[in-house]
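Ex. 9. Protein: PD-(D/E)XK endonuclease-like domain-containing protein.
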Amino acid sequence: MPLRTELTGNPDVVRLSASALDRRERDCPASAAAKAYPAMRPVVRDRRRYPPWASFPLGLVISALDFVEHDGYDPDVAAEMAVEESRDPVHRGVARWIRHACRTYVETSESLAAELAAEGVELHLDGRPRVVQHGTRGASAVEMRALTAWGRWYASPDGSVVEFRRLRLRRPTGRKSDHSTLAMAYVAAAGDRVVDPRDVYQAVPIPVEHGGVRPRRIRVVEMGLTDADARVLVDAAPEEVRQAYLDSVRPVAAGLLTDDRRAPGSDCAGCRLFGSCEALARTPGLLGLPGPGTHRRTWSVTTARQYQVCPAQSHLRDLHLPAEEAAGSAVRRGLLVHRWLETAHGRPRKRPCTLEDLPDPTGSFHGLAERMMNWDEYRQIWPYLVQHVDVCPLRGPGEVTAVIPEPGVAAYDSTADVVVVANPDLLRRVDGRLVYREQKTSLTDRGITAENALELVPQLALAVCLIAGGVFGDTAGTVELEQLTPVSGTVVELDAADPGVVAAARAVLAELAGPWHRDTAFRATPGPWCRFCPVSRWCGDASRADEGPFMTVDGLVIDPVTGEILESPGCTTSRVEAVTGALTGAEDDEPPF
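Predicted structure tokens for PD-(D/E)XK endonuclease-like domain-containing protein:
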């Protein structure tokens, strides 16, 4: 459906944020385009409910820094004031990170000031942002094109130097050539100061100050709020900035405004096109919950696993608070195996994997793996890939068609008011029948069978319910779990058209999603996993007990470094799988800021 048919109002008013030019692989282009038309509203109205807790930690950091830089408060005191004045409750873990972020910013800012002082440059906070806008107000219509940048603004007393600082949750990640970076620099170089910061997102056109000294030096700096680091991405004359913007960014910005491609996923819950988008499958009752929860939210099996281990962990990760990056061998092994399989199954000429694709790692290093990993990494995953050959989903039997490796899948449960997202390892059709495959690697056999697979691997329960709900067009299909160890490759199959299998799968999802769906406090559940929780740094309730290098959960000994079960293999439990999944699972998405 064309974008303009889903929105009504004045299409001649455009307000684009520079950060919108950051495009991640699974971002929805149409959702980003719809945000850029503030004078238009959805044709299909959708009553949006907002979370009953503070959901944008960066906004609270900005408030705290205002107290520091405007009013001279100590960073810790300023952070407490920002939390206390928040309209919505702030989780204890979020408040802890805000204090850290505020201190980190102040320390890094002092280092930047010292570097500039050596050049004879002094910068002061400029509380009024800049905006580039062009437009007219006629008798019956308004036309405006505005480019904005959200962050913190600084300028020298004479106005000759303007610096824009972009805040990053953890560390600087941008590059000078990024479209968003060049757009921010352009706003600093060509923009006018707004009269009232509140008008940036409300007034059309935005009232600005005219005249004054134009800057001769433009800086764009990314500030890490956790790792105390700053990266100067742009330090150039305005003429250079303008030319870079016109050459590289302006065509991209124009294309963004008209891009109508749909990519259902994590963007859906807050999208302006939600009520009319035909690309998002609608599956009432998908999670088996009786009614809506606190507000429209996004749920995945990763969410469920994190919540099963600790609600506080789930909440902090949902808000993208900086997490300690998992670095265990199982993490790396799983990512590399998935990457190799995605590449192999995505080859233009679809064919089964063979041993010829897997040269012996003791010999010359070549083949598919050479382009995506080093020799030592290939040596570690080679035994698993060899076991995959005999169970490769492209082997048949039967005619294999419509092969899609690692697709993004999203469905809306209107009963629960939840957008459910999934990332199958592979979708295909065998003799016309849909087959949904998940893949799992482990050092030893985990004892997962057709009888316990739905509970121990809830991705399979979700797959069954997605198929039964008609998300793929059919209401019948097969769900597979490919299990790889260094010495075996097996496949567990589940019939998604079997009423008993579907009922069992719905019960698994309801049990996992139900408590999360109703929760508003997200209290911590301390345990041995706290020592290895990626966000325990922000949790005042985390257990600090030293129990040695390993931890025991449900009687099973787990190596937190590798994520492997060391004792009693073949007797795993749902909670053990949740803990090991939290230890070895990678983030589904990079945070958008």
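Check your answer against this statement. The mean pLDDT is 91.
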